[in-house]
Sequence to fold (190 residues):
Amino acid sequence: MRRQVRERRRNRSDAEREAAARQLAHRVLALPELTGADTVAAYVSTAAEPGTLPLRTELRRRGARVLLPVLRADDDLDWALDEGPLARGRRGVAEPAGARLGTDAITQATVVVCPAAAVALDGTRLGHGGGSYDRALTRSAGLLVALVHDDELVEVLPREPHDQPVHVAITPGRTVRLPVRGRPTPTAPD
Fold:
């Protein structure tokens, strides 16, 4: 399935990618959990992934601290602030060049926006196969949000014991709250 998703993503035009990135940013920014959030974890999207640049830019403009992942040698995720130039990290993935904040920095994030190849309606997130995000998401008490294209929100996916479910799937066309078993879905304060 990952191979199929990568192929479909590669076939999207630049215009489609840019429009999707703007729509995703709008939908994420409309989440009530982001109202007043001072720290949000996000990621630097690759060329084929649903884009995060408009979202990251607007979060910083609103005054939020944006944490970005840094892939460690043990494949766990460290975090650094999205506040300056990006560098090429392990496996060629762009990452912030600034000071590392440690693996537990994700605990400060009210909302964690994470990459996914697909998301099922029960909250199962299909990652990219390395397990880095699954390890990191176990540390988070924030709202877990996965960004995918409309055709990547599916009925069902296989779930391994280590897979961490997400609370919300956001596509360019819709925002879906997911019933996550064993983990309550955070809600906005009254």
